[in-house]
Automatic annotation (TrEMBL):
<feature type="signal peptide">
    <location>
        <begin position="1"/>
        <end position="27"/>
    </location>
</feature>
<keyword id="KW-0249">Electron transport</keyword>
<keyword id="KW-0479">Metal-binding</keyword>
<dbReference type="InterPro" id="IPR036909">
    <property type="entry name" value="Cyt_c-like_dom_sf"/>
</dbReference>
<keyword id="KW-0349">Heme</keyword>
<dbReference type="InterPro" id="IPR008168">
    <property type="entry name" value="Cyt_C_IC"/>
</dbReference>
<keyword id="KW-0813">Transport</keyword>
<protein>
    <submittedName>
        <fullName>C-type cytochrome</fullName>
    </submittedName>
</protein>
<keyword id="KW-0408">Iron</keyword>
<dbReference type="Pfam" id="PF00034">
    <property type="entry name" value="Cytochrom_C"/>
</dbReference>
<feature type="domain" description="Cytochrome c">
    <location>
        <begin position="14"/>
        <end position="96"/>
    </location>
</feature>
<keyword id="KW-0732">Signal</keyword>
<dbReference type="InterPro" id="IPR009056">
    <property type="entry name" value="Cyt_c-like_dom"/>
</dbReference>
Length: 96
């Protein structure tokens, strides 16, 4: 029973860490709450809804979206799965 509880706690902590870390990679340029124009060139993403963020990230990934930061962002999102993109979109939408 102790193993089951510990395993469950470890899995939950790992999932929370991965989820929290996913925006951490973005925060360096976009700010802790998405309040910055990344490198002074991007749109401020704070306040974007989930659908807008998902469309932008998928567009960066397939090359159909983006302006000045298109090349930088394509590299950033290349490794993201659809689940990762959805998770990031939820986090960004929470920044009010």
């Amino acid at each position: 029973m102790k193993k089951l509880v510990l395993t469950t706690l470890f899995a939950a902590a790992t999932a929370a860490t991965l989820s929290a870390a996913s925006f951490a990679a973005c925060a360096g340029c976009h700010g802790a709450n998405g309040e910055k124009a990344a490198l002074g060139k991007s749109a401020i993403i704070k306040g974007w809804d989930e659908a807008k963020t998902i469309a932008a990230l998928k567009g960066y990934k397939d090359g159909s979206y983006g302006g000045a930061m298109k090349g930088v962002m394509k590299g950033q999102v290349a490794r993201l799965s659809d689940a990762d993109i959805a998770d990031l979109a939820k986090q960004i939408a929470a920044f009010k």
